[in-house]
Amino acid sequence: MAVVIERSLTQSLIRRxxxxxxxxHADRPEEPxxxxxxxELIHNxxxxxxxxxxxxxVQITRHGRVVAVIGPPDQDEIKLDELAAGxxxxxxxxxxxxxxxDRLRTIPARSQPPGEPTGSASIIADRDRHR
Length: 131
Fold this sequence. Notes:
131 residues; YefM-like fold
């Protein structure tokens, strides 16, 4: 849930600053990453990077244990880095996003007792009353 919220916040920020919202790789159905031993990465890096350029994630293994994951860049992060370099967003946006993610993980889920309106329903009803 935090990842979806994080992506939504990131895309909202990019929209407000006038940038296009790039299509995210995470919106596609995720296929299992290919596992590649370190030796193959060293000797056949062109093939491995070709997989990454095609949008695939690759797990790098050493003695059968995953030691790294290589994947395509997150276009939202690239855009935010460019905006930070231009002074349009805070340079510490990654740290702020990490703190927000950590905070969202600690907030307990709220639920209404049966028969009570949900938060969304209350907001919509309040908005309709004040039209």
